[in-house]
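Q: Could you fold this chain for me?
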Amino acid sequence: MKKIIPVIVFMFFSNTMFAQNGWFKTYTDSIILLSDANRIKDQFSRDIKKIKPNSKFKVDLIFDTTPNLIFINNDTIHLPLWEEVDGNFKGLLEQLAGGAENGKEVFGLFFNGFYLAHELGHGFQFTVEKRSELREYEMEYFANTISILWWRKQKKEAELKRCYEYAKIMLKDYPDPFPSGVDKKNYFSENYNDLQLDSNLFARIYPYVQFNQFIEIYEDKSLTDFDNFVKAYLKISGR
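A: Sure. Below is the predicted structure, expressed as structure tokens.
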């Protein structure tokens, strides 16, 4: 046993360090991606259970690169790899971010980074409220708020700042995809299902909404911390 313990300790710290240093980076190995993502999911779950011990929050993670990139469906979060992403999306991201390496970095910061807690936030909300009763714009705003606050709780301010800087860069010359004169929040919520039928329009509107929400929430000085935000949300929801 004396010979085994140092090896186990080394493996533990190596894995922990990788998770701490690897996330918010562009992954190339789906096994490592899933391993690190599961550690994050488990920590998120523990943080929720400390606030709400009887919470039914539970999600699974799978590796599955699709045009939707990272998303939750039926309590399962799908995770993507950069190498398997559609070339048109890569090109768009590289164009908006200012070059090939920048586009790749943005993918790591957001899709192998920030948006995991965003999807976990969706999963948590769906245990409190009925999915069918939620408005799309507000639902996304909630998930983005949960994500920013939770990553701050994990001391990831530097990574969030980098996300913020890139969001500002990408929106600088991003044409407003909404019809002229509409209330963007209502339009997004009321037409969400129809928008998904038009892949070109949805691909323009969805990033515009997400990055604008990120900037607004990141700049919001009135926000409390993660624990108090969740407690207030549960109180308002009567749960």
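A (continued): Strands lie at 60-63, 71-73, 76-79.
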